[in-house]
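Morning run. Coffee first, then this:
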Amino acid sequence: MVLIGENINIMSRAIGAAVTARDPAPIQEMAKAEAEAGMDYLDINIGPARKAGDELIAWVINAVQQVTDKPLSLDTTSPVTMEAGLKVCKARPLVNSVSLQPERLKQGLPLVKKYHASMIGLLWGMEGMPRDANERCLLAVDLIYQVNQFGISSEDIWIDPIATPVSGEINQVKACLEFMSMLKDIAPDCKSTVGLSNVSNGTPAHLRPCLNRTYLIMLMRYGLHSAIVDALDPELIRIARGEMPEIVDLVYRVMDGDMPDLSSLSQKEIEYVKTVRVLTGETLYSHSWLEI
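And here it is:
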């Protein structure tokens, strides 16, 4: 699995302060930590970057590229900022992201093509968030068609079905899984990715890793190609690298309806079993789901 480190994000207190002060050290330390953790790409997220975004993203990218040669994923909604970043990338970049909103297509696709980048195709349509798996399929087909028509191959499209918080609408969490089970049939040449940490947004910090890890395993069952992840979660990385097959098998069995005797399991195994049941809607989400 291709892992994209999410930790260079201007919304982070440490990274945001470093960017404001134009202090490269914290950004470079994080880039080195992500690379050492085994990330395949580093995501550079500077948000809308409404003020001097072009200068800002170039400065961040140059700082990162001084300490690692990992390819970069560029995350900004500003086309001017995106192009400034693409210009200074040394390795082939990933544009994060292009959606079906007409203005985003009009601005994003020429940049993807001009700089020979790959792109994340975000399944956000004219009416916003898709309501279910079927709407995701329709949006994916429409997006792929328009991107192909522009001369960009399906192999360069990484479809993002949009993960949503489990503390919000559980049907959306389930719809993302259902869509992933169909993606290879409707778009066999495309890749896939997901902003994994979205599923745990709004939950207490100590509970987020369990949700992220379990949801990753569930998505992996349907051939997830990549994920944007917390590079500082070593257990999640071990899962992605195939180093915890017993836990993966346990999660798959619970997804299939098996409910093992909890008294026969370790504490870690119990946590994964309970979390699968929350993510499939079998158990109602609450902050105390692991204690019930």
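The chain is about 45% helix and 15% strand. Good start to the day.
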